[in-house]
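Lecture 7 notes. Example A: sequence first, then its structure tokens.
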Amino acid sequence: MTIDVSAERVIPLPPERVAEYAMDWRHDTEWTQGIRTAELTREADQGGFGVGAEVTRTAYFLGRRIDYVLRVAAYAPPRLLDMVSVAGPMPMHVTYTFEPDPRGTFARIRVRGGGGGFYRLAAPVLARQVRSSIGKDLRDLEHRLTGQ
């Protein structure tokens, strides 16, 4: 993979509350940087959202429109949501984890990705931008949930 970045933040709420909101694709546009649309385009085998479900997102990043589909590879609320891209401009692996912390929830987003062309050439800049973006995501997640 060309990039492997993560961001972490302690959110002063229980993991169940944080994960319930963050793992719901219907909230993606409210707290995730650059995402303009998110749609459940394939349900899990048992129906609804879970392993095998696919979410199609349209985002803008570094001035470019990016359309991609993430498939849920692992889903263990309130602890883990792991997704891999199955369509889009570059391979991507996005992992959300939520662990109990004495101050609330230790939230982490990890993004791994790579690809050719523009994305390989721009990897150092891309990694910095992604790290900044997911850091803002966690900040916005906290603000949305705490009202601060």
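Example B, a different protein, same format:
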Amino acid sequence: MTDRAAARERLIVGLDVATWAEAEAIVDTLGDEVLWYKIGYQLAYAGGLPLVSELARAGKQVFLDLKLLDISNTVAKGVESAQALGAAMLTIHAYPHAMKAAVEAASGSPLTLLGVTVLTSLDDADLKDAGYGLTVRELVALRAEQARDIGMGGIVSAASEAGPMRDRIGPDMAIVTPGIRPAGAAAGDQKRVATPGDALQAGASHLVVARPIVAAGDPRKAAVAILDEMAAALG
């Protein structure tokens, strides 16, 4: 596999837009350059969940970022529904009971379950305000190890934690990293950000990029530039 092909396998473009029509326009614009797409709250609540199946039928991979957290039975039913839609990845907030229910529900399927450790928009002060007695690094480590032991397919964490977490969870689990910003781009509401190259070199397996691509004047050009940076880092 070439470095460019490997980069395509690792880039996930976030369809963080308000309508199905906007999402389809982005997918059409990006064409064969992009293999993976993320569908999160904004598009899902705007009627975009059937797009998961449409993209899967078109040969794309879909990361369904719904961060499930509820009683075990509800989480399990949500996982079953995500499987039926054709999602390739699904996020679960990394609480042990939720992850255990999700792993049991997904048993035997190709769905990769990802434990969300600590959102990249949070820092140590935010965790303290929320009542946690751990730092970001400590809580990410705890949840990553729990995800590993429970049998999750991977975790979601910032690039700043990817290296230490790779050492903790081993080489096989996915580490999906949001908060990716090309050099010189604004961080926006993210607090723990990294460039594409830095994130890959830190140990991330997949990078989630939304605004730097979907809000760009030329989304395809922006995606190509990020893929080029990723390929260089993988070379």
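Note on Example B: The CA atoms of residues 93 and 116 lie 5 Å apart. The mean pLDDT is 93.
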